[in-house]
Amino acid sequence: MRRRLLSRAAVAVTSLSLLGAVAPAASAHGGHHDTARRVGYFTQWGVYGRDFQVQDLERSGAAARLTHINYAFGNIGTDGKCLMGNVPGESDPWADYQRPLDAENSVDGVADTDTQALAGNFNQLRELKAAHPGLKVMISLGGWSWSTNFSDSVRTPAARKALVASCVDLYLKGNLPQDGARGGAGAAAGVFDGVDIDWEWPGSEGDTDTVYRPEDKRNFTALVAEFRRQLDAYGRTRHKHYELSAFVPTAPAKIDAGFEVRKIMKDFDFVNLQGYDFHVSGEKTTAQQSALYARNDFSVDGTVDAWLHRGAPARKLVVGMPFYGQGWTGVSGGGDGLGQPATAPAPAKWANGYADYKELKALADSGTYRLHRDQRGGHAWLFDGTTLWTYDDPQVLTQKSRYVRAEGLGGAMFWSLDGDTPDGELVRTVDRALGH
C-alpha cells in the first residue's frame, strides 16, 4: 500500500516547510524520474476572448519548459472520420489554419501573407517547434463537448481503421481541406507528433449528447491498438516515432466501465490522469476540486493508486494539474467555507463557477479574500465569507510535482496554458519542482 494521510488539517497560509516531506527520492513504483513530461493543453478557442496566442508561450518562457503541447481539440464527424471544415460549433478551420497573424503575434516575428498554405494556430505551432526542436505537439481528439461520435465511430474493425486513417491523413500527413490559398496536400505536415485521445467517456456518461455503450470498453482497446498500428506504419516511412496518449478519468467506476488497463497501456506512450474537477461548482456544497490526498473522497493520490492497481506502469502516468479554479457563492455555515452549502456557481469572467489562475491570483492579492491551505491534503482555497474558490497555487503545484518525482511517475499535465499568468508562473513552478 502507498502512503495515506488520514486527517485534514485546514490552516491559513503558512510557510513552505511541509513541502520538504515530499522530497525527490527513489520510489517503489519506478525510482527517480529525471525525464518527466511537462504536457500543456493549448485551447483552440483561447485565441479569441482570452487573446492567448501561441506566441504567448514563447513570450512567457513556457515553451522552453514544456515537452508536449496538446492542441485542444480535434473533432470526429457523424461520418466517423476526423472533421475539419466550416461546421459551426463542430470545427474551426479559421483558428486552426486560416487566420493570418501579424508580426507582433507571430512566433518568428514575421506577418503571415495571403498566399501561404498554412496560417493560424497550426503555423504558429510549427514556428514554435522550429524555435524549440525538442518540443512535441499532439492533436487531442474529443474533449467533453466533442466526444459525441466516438462510440458510433469505433464499433467495427472497418470503422476504426477508417477513423484512424482519416486522423493520420488530416493531422500527421497534414492534408487539409483547400480554402483559397490555405490548406491543400501536406500543408500541415510536420506540425503534429502524435495523437492524444480525449474520449470522455467510453462506457459511461459524459456530456448530454455523448453516446456510450457497454461495448465501448473493448472497442476503446481496439481503437488504441489501431492507432498504434497506423502511427507505427506511418512512422516507419518518416523514420519517426509518433506518440499516442489519452486523457483518462479518476473515478474507479469510470475506469472499470471503459478501460482494459493492462492491454491499452502497452500501446500508449503515456496517459494524462484527471487530477481536477473532483468536485465542481454545479454541486450544492463547496468542496476541493484537486486535492493531492483526501480521505473518503477523490484525490490525485487515489487516482494514481487506481491506475497502478489495475496494472498501469508508474512511468506512463502523467498527473493532471489545473490552471483554474472551481467557485461557489452564497456560501453559508461560517468557518473556512469548505464543505458548506452554497446557492450558485460564483460569478467569473468567462464562465460562472470557473476562473483562470491569473484571475484567482488577483483575488488572493486583493486582500478581500483569505487564503486557506490544507497542508496535509495538498490543496488551497480562497474565501471571503460568501464566495469560495478552490484552486492550485504555486505552493500546491510544488507539492504535487515533488510527489510526481517521489513516486516515479511520468510527469505533469496542465489544463490549460491560457490560465497561467503572462510570465508563465505556474509552468515555471512545476518545471523547477520536477527538476531536469
Automatic annotation (TrEMBL):
PROSITE patterns cross-referenced by the UniProt entry: GH18_1, GH18_2
Source species, domain of life: Bacteria
Signal peptide: 1-28
Record key words, sorted: Carbohydrate metabolism, Chitin degradation, Glycosidase, Hydrolase, Polysaccharide degradation, Signal
Catalyses which reaction(s): Random endo-hydrolysis of N-acetyl-beta-D-glucosaminide (1->4)-beta-linkages in chitin and chitodextrins
Domain GH18 positions: 36-436
EC id: 3.2.1.14
CDD domains assigned: GH18_chitinase (cd06548)
Gene Ontology MF terms: chitin binding; endochitinase activity
InterPro entries in alphabetical order: Chitinase_II/V-like_cat, Chitinase_insertion_sf, GH, Glyco_hydro18_cat, Glyco_hydro_18_chit_AS, Glycosyl_Hydrlase_18
GO process terms (BP): carbohydrate metabolic process; chitin catabolic process
Pfam families: Glyco_hydro_18 (PF00704)
Family the entry assigns: Belongs to the glycosyl hydrolase 18 family.
Name of this chain's protein: chitinase
